[in-house]
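At this stage, I needed to go through a protein sequence along with its fold in token form, as given directly below:
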Amino acid sequence: MRVRKVQEKRSWAINVAVGIIKPTLLVSTKREWIDGDKNFPSEGGFVIALNHLSHVDPLTSALFVYDHGRIPRFLAKAGLFKNKLLGGYLRSAGQIPVERETSGAVGAYAAAVAAVRRGECVIIYPEATITRDPDLWPMRGKSGAARIALEVGCPVVPVGQWGAQEILPPYTKKPYLFPRKKIVARVGPPVDVTDLAAKQPRTAEVVNEATDRIMAAITHQLELIRGADAPDERYDMRVHGDRFRNRKEAS
């Protein structure tokens, strides 16, 4: 696993995060980054799309992106920005607030598009929440990553990641730092949506097809990590419900 040097200008907030998060994860985890040298862009704007396993995997994913020489830009819950101190810090770190299911989501989309056009790496969890699949396979995805790619014509790099759920299981509060947990992230080839980007008008069917391709690519990378096949039917919270609802309400 070869670590690339970050070439982008780092804000004070990124330097603080690196100084805290990286040493903590180096001590508490073992990491395996697969095919990053081949498939992870070293320059230019793009979207990286990952499966979501735990509240801690944004930290492991941030280290993964940083180790590949890029500054991570997340689409983060708008609620995190309501605290004046935390919100100021997140904005200084270049993170993008998302108000889900509201008109404010349009602003987040525009900010993400602008970031990619500036040549930045924008991280998106297409599931938009921790997977509810009983075996932690990726769920049905939302359209954000696809819409950005169709608008900008940028690569969408699919990443399957595994292991963060061993540090902090979904919707629990107690982390398990030791013994050290192994975190694996596998980078797939960019998802090709150029044929879909050429279609006008950009209908819901076009966006859904792009989303399905992205989710299939992420799932394939996770299958390779786990050495197992994902279910034929992807978990859909609108159909199958939220099996973590009681845990969320208790927290």
Observations:
- The chain has a mean pLDDT of 90.
- The two ends are 38 Å apart (CA to CA).
- The first helix runs from residue 12 to 28.
- The chain has eleven helices and seven strands.
